[in-house]
Design goal:
This protein is of the alpha/beta class. It folds into three domains: 85 residues, Winged helix-like DNA-binding domain superfamily/Winged helix DNA-binding domain (Arc Repressor Mutant, subunit A); 98 residues, 3-Layer(aba) Sandwich (D-Maltodextrin-Binding Protein, domain 2); 100 residues, D-Maltodextrin-Binding Protein, domain 2, CATH 3.40.190.10. The chain contains nine helices and 13 strands.
Length: 296
């Protein structure tokens, strides 16, 4: 039973006149009449009453018309869904990120654009550390991840692209003797307790911090390692220690925390976009393109 035959049945049911239905469908009336008879034979029911040279729907015809319209609507929607999915206008995107990726405006801005321009794309967001995000990408549980560099020897199956570069600053509690200074170098805090991210060895903001302290000529006294930047700054607020954080973290306006510019000429911190070489859908390809071309 073809969709064409079902569409022809609906037109005949709407017109209740074989000649008008044939004109509307741009086919010969005998061919249309034969098609309706074949449909009735296929179903084993009479769809139309032809008494007194008038065409009316039988009870079976009424029931079949209702379900046929629904079936045709679903078929039309299936075609649209397939076309939109092929164009990357709908589907699901699994996006992972380290906590500090949300402080910079670029990633939230792109998420807003996706929701506004392509409401058919369903976003599944996962926050995690570098190791967890790596594993999820390799297992194809994530499509894209935004991870803070440096990245320790990413697997060959993953592609790494620059996403955002930003400067670093210091987070101090207000009672700190140097909290009122306009700018500081790292060495001036060599005797302080520090809060650091607990990233896997050789990766992420912890490695940036350790490298910066080494260049400044000291080994930091790490009082606490923590899993996300928000918790780091909360511990600074509590007076547990000081921290080196991305400049975008200034968006976190916590009580008892001041942000101080750095005098040191440190390498900028970089967020990277990481995705599997095997791109599974047009949605993922579209979002990768957006992330690559978006303005800072």
């Amino acid at each position: 039973m073809s969709l064409r035959a079902l569409r022809h049945f609906v037109v005949v049911a709407e017109e209740l006149h074989m000649h008008r239905a044939a004109e509307r469908l741009h086919i010969a009336q005998p061919a249309l009449s034969q098609q309706i008879k074949q449909l009735e034979q296929r179903l084993g029911v009479v769809l139309f009453s032809r008494a007194n040279r008038r065409l009316t729907l039988t009870a079976a015809g009424e029931a079949f018309l209702h379900k046929t319209r629904l079936a045709l609507e679903m078929a039309d929607q299936a075609v649209l869904d397939a076309q939109r999915t092929a164009r990357g206008e709908q589907g699901r995107l699994h996006l992972g990120y380290v906590s500090s990726a949300m402080y910079d405006s670029k990633l939230p801005g792109l998420l807003r654009r996706l929701r506004a321009d392509w409401p058919g794309i369903e976003l599944s967001l996962v926050q995690g550390d570098v190791q967890m995000l790596y594993e999820a990408l390799l297992d194809l549980r994530l499509d894209i991840a935004i991870i803070r560099a440096p990245l320790a020897s990413p697997p060959d199956a993953l592609v790494v692209r620059p996403f955002v570069r930003e400067k670093l600053c210091l987070a101090l509690y207000q009672q700190h003797p140097l909290a009122g200074v306009g700018a500081l170098n790292l060495a001036s805090l060599r005797t302080d307790n520090w809060i650091s991210l607990d990233d896997p060895q050789g990766t992420g903001l912890e490695q940036v911090f350790m490298d910066a302290c080494r260049v400044a000529g000291f080994t930091p006294q790490v009082a606490q390692r923590i899993n996300d930047v928000t918790s780091m700054i909360s511990l600074v607020s509590a007076g547990v220690g000081v921290a080196l954080v991305p400049l975008s973290a200034r968006a976190l306006r916590l009580d008892n925390v001041v942000y101080i510019d750095l005098q040191d000429r440190l390498a900028e911190s970089e967020l990277s976009m990481v995705y599997h070489r095997h791109i599974r859908s047009a949605v993922v390809r579209k979002v990768i393109s957006l992330l690559n071309t978006a303005e800072r």
